[in-house]
Give the backbone structure.
Amino acid sequence: MSSSESQTNAADGASNDGSAVASTIVRLTAKASGFARRGRPWLFRDDIVSGAPMPPRLVRVLDENGRDLGLGITGASKLALRMCGPWPACDGADVPTREVFFQARLDAAIDARAGRLGPDDGVRIVHSESDWLPGLVVDRYGDVLVLQVTSSFVQASLDAIVPYLADRLSAGSVVARNDVPTRKREGLPQEVEILHGTRKLEVAIVEGAVTHTVRPLTGHKTGFYLDQQPARALVKSLAKGRRVLDLFCYQGGFALHALRGGATSALAVDQSEEALAQAELDAACNQVTGLQTRRGNVFDVVRELREKNEQFDLIVLDPPAFAKSRRELPGAERGYRDLNRLALRLLAPNGFLVTCTCSHHLDGPRFEELVRQASAGLPFRVAMRKRLGAGDDHATLITHPESEYLKVLLMQRVGK
């Protein structure tokens, strides 16, 4: 039998005598091969020639003619294959060992963030597909690492990942924040656990001369919104002498940066009493004055502020994802449109609105269209000044639109 015939049998999950084998080779259909070459990182069961469910493993991916497309991870969900990038075949092996694979990919990810690894820094170390490590997110808060795993193979490989990461980054604690619903797709439990070192309820990071408290075990996402670093820097640069409104503020990250930048006051609004209490503690820690907090539903609060003819020179609107599936998009669009219109009506002349969406189902052009609709008919003009996204440690892949989940627009009320 020729080598190509042997590979084809392996890709189809059969040995010479027809019995099933645990293959390390996956062969794609012609259509799926084209997708993979164009950079699509996710492929489904119908894209694999064998068609049969495969156990989670690291595999060599071939096109319809047996040509190499790099490595991939098979999964237990409808998402059957996640591409892991090019990898040379060595010593006749189709795939490297787990240890060799993860160490190489982790080293590359860490080296790419080499300038952001100070003792008090907060940074995303691994950004899933963007670092050829699909199903894995790693955030670093000082000496605390927080992992989020959404792949069965990655979950089963933590023994090859955690010790190496902890040693390479001198981590005092490694936490698994595996409490995200997407784990259910691969039959993984939702849980929070300590994987290495000591249990730390809080850790402090410093960003732009502002100290933030991070709660790795209980905070939103992995403990903090690291992706909004560029927008917080923008707010700080605009804040001097302005009255600021921070909506959906969580722990007041934007408000604190605004006050550090010279804002005269900042009103932080959120539904979480605990988050607002932390915002007040962090304001005291940073020795900034002028922070006010208000607990309530943001839609209700902005309407009440409008009824009182309140105005603000700088407003930050950073709501949670309104659309967590495509089915929720129509309702989410109404919410974004209404909320942005309410916020725009609270702007003082020449005031700025920093408006955000983290719904990856809502693309950038559509989000801009909703903001345009929100500004239509207002008794003043609205100009778009800037577009932002996540920080460069959350790299966006041009071939993977889902990675551009965070969209941020800087709008300004022009004139009186």
